[in-house]
């Protein structure tokens, strides 16, 4: 019996736990992550940096491509007499999700891959970026969206573009505008919450799965 206890004791010492969990996983300062400092409200030095303008250009191009592809997809479904001959609602969802997936991968290392003023506003309120950068991002995102929709209108013609309402969302029959507003608020909350969760400094290897989120 004593021999078996000795074997267990030696085995436990020989094969120590290789991946600490709980409090054992923390570093000496009590954290296993580095929390970045809050961004200053105004950072005039950014205006002299090429990376600042490069990030804005990335947001413009990403938003332009997102609106161009998504609006064309929606209008292609709407103008068809039968949904069976189009990609359908699921195709629209794949177009939106797929474009965001690709564009965030392309721009995450340049601008952070916001591609949405709501995301930029949320990150600004959380002191993740300065007011200067937030305003610049929002302006470039809006310009990209306008240009993307404008190119679609140019390709399809003003008449057809107007008949299809430019691929804009409308409140479905049986629902009020208040219902639509509530759905938009909840959807935007989930979007921004997901971005914050995926980019949290406490998460390990977060850079690889942010676009998937």
From TrEMBL:
Any one annotated GO CC term: membrane
Subcellular location: Membrane
Keyword annotations of the record: Membrane, Transmembrane, Transmembrane helix, Transport
Principal location class: membrane
Regions that span the bilayer: 57-79, 91-115, 135-156
Pfam families: MIP
PROSITE patterns associated with the record: MIP
Topological relation to the membrane, as annotated: Multi-pass membrane protein
Keyword hit for Transmembrane helix: yes
GO MF, any single term: channel activity
InterPro entries, A to Z: Aquaporin-like, Aquaporin_transptr, MIP, MIP_CS
SUPFAM superfamilies per UniProt: Aquaporin-like (SSF81338)
Family of this protein: Belongs to the MIP/aquaporin (TC 1.A.8) family.
Full protein name: Uncharacterized protein
């Amino acid at each position: 019996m004593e021999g078996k206890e000795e074997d267990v004791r030696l085995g436990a010492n020989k094969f120590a736990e290789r991946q600490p969990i709980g409090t054992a996983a923390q570093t000496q300062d009590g954290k296993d992550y580095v929390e970045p400092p809050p961004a200053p409200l105004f950072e005039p030095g950014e205006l002299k940096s090429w990376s600042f303008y490069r990030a804005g250009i990335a947001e413009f191009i990403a938003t332009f491509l997102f609106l161009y592809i998504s609006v064309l997809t929606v209008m292609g479904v709407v103008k068809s007499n039968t949904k069976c001959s189009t990609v359908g609602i699921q195709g629209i969802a794949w177009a939106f999700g797929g474009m965001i997936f690709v564009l965030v991968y392309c721009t995450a290392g340049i601008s952070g891959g916001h591609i949405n003023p709501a995301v930029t506003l949320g990150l600004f309120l959380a002191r993740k970026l300065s007011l200067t950068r937030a305003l610049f991002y929002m302006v470039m995102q809006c310009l990209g969206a306008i240009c993307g929709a404008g190119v679609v209108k140019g390709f399809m013609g003003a008449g057809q573009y107007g008949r299809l309402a430019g691929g804009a969302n409308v409140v479905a029959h049986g629902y009020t505008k208040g219902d639509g507003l509530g759905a938009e608020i909840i959807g935007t909350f989930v979007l921004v919450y997901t971005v914050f969760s995926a980019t949290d400094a406490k998460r390990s290897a977060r850079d690889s799965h942010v676009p998937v989120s």
